Amino acid sequence: MARILLVICGGIAAYKALELIRRLREKGHEVPAILTEAATRFVTPLSVGALSNAPVLTDLFDLDREREIGHIRLARAADIVVVAPATADIMARMATGRADDLATAALLATGAPILLAPAMNPHMWAHPATARNVARLVADGVRLVGPEAGEMAERGEAGIGRLAEPAAILAAIEDILAPDRRLEGRHVVVTSGPTHEAIDPVRYIANRSSGKQGHAIAAAAARAGARVTLVSGPVTIPTPPGVTLRAVESARDMLAAVEAALPADIAVMAAAVADWHVEAAAQKLKKTASGPPALTLSENPDILATISRSASRPRLVVGFAAETENVIAHARAKLARKGCDWILANDVSAGVFGEAENTVHLITADRVEDWPRLSKEDVGARLVNRIAETLAD
Known about the structure:
single chain, Rossmann fold, 2 domains, 14 helices, 34% helix
């Protein structure tokens, strides 16, 4: 059990801190909290205290607490300090060493690792001042989780700035407290996202993949100590920390990037690769009186089968099967057809693409493991754990 000092800052995402407290308490951690003045406009000390069953502080000049320099004791007793949500304001004040309220005083006084989970409007996150502050904090040893891409609270606003989901924050906390390095010295290649197959300079064939699952697997492998090469089609989510990105567009680009990344110990082919492509027109196709143009489809290279049968085949090759019917049967057939070691199968008929959770079945040559519905971060962590166990045998 660890003592986790949670600093909650003002912002609409503050409500997610309550879910984070619940998850941390389920793990047996002690979670005292500090609320900034702005945070109390979004969540109350009463609700935080009811969930944490631990001290909740809001005032640097609280006579009872500060008679014994309470904020110093709180900061020094913590195993880790987590700021969630971390606003642009608190990051700016941390970067300059300010200590003019309880939160910043505790952050300056602690010797524990600090984890920030930023949350703000995408324009604020993209502002050069925020980028400078983040760079300064990272140089000082502060760790970050998120932010993620998605819709904002403001109508019509979208982009990178959403608070990381509680499961992702919990995974980052646990990685700092008890890092799992079982893949130390291993090279993992992960494919993620969709591919875009050009029709002409402005149009393409694609699918609904967000890349969340593949990126979560890459992040989990990096946390486990692996050297990770992430080959990703076009996505709007950030590259996980500690991961080398190879950005690609088409299936043919993706295969070339994966082959260039070999040799590897493990390959996880999580990308939703287009099965077909067309010979792209050099100029934009125009409407004509004769109707829409005829598009001749040609088969794309089979990346999973190619890597599974490669002379430099990784020791463990994991594929994905996104199915809309007969999920297990189709995944078993794919396992045999492709020549990979495992298949993670999921039913995408209910709208998995872009969602935060996934329900998968791990299929090997001799067994099927039915996993419960999990966050995509938890699916990534569970898969990496199974990989580490298998390679240790």
